[in-house]
Prior knowledge:
The chain is an alpha+beta fold. The protein has one domain (3-173): Aminopeptidase, CATH 3.40.630.30. Helix content is 30%, strand content 35%. It is built from 5 helices and 8 strands. An 8-stranded mixed sheet has the order 1-2-3-4-5-6-8-7. Strand 3 (72-81) and strand 4 (84-98) form a beta hairpin. Helix 1 packs across helix 3. The termini are far apart.
Amino acid sequence: MMKELIRNRFQTKKGVVVWIRPLLPTDAPHLVDIFKHMSADSRYSRFHQPLDSVAPERVWREAEAIAQTPQQEGIIAFADLPDQPHAPIGAARYVCTGDGVAETAVSVRDDMQGEGIGTYLLSVLAEEARAQGVQQLAATIQNANKAIVHVLNRLPYPYTKTAVGSESELTLDLTALK
Length: 178
């Protein structure tokens, strides 16, 4: 871990120290590790398709594509876990899609969910996006994904949620506060 890249640290609800740094083009192995520590339900909530028996080659290709996407900003979180020092535990990113608008996504491995990591990552990412001139963060979520709604309710920005079948379109307004 290159210390000069660490942006900040925080503690989870259970006191685990987490550090965050920018997502780098070489982070595909870390993204694969996060994916491997996600259940089929978590993968479905995040990627909108069943990914419980996906080929390892596809996982690597997708992780490399995410890590190397131009026009994106992202952060990745690490923690020293009992069985895995410097474990990648979550990531968040946004990709600019238009004038002042960016699509966002966040993933947290299952054994670290419910600890405030997703909220913290999305909060930091929203501040960075806002500083870069992004006015809205957009995402498509499964309607059954109550965890992301909980995260959004904890952020200081208002959001709209428009249901479209089994999914909803979310827009987080970075120009206003709740």
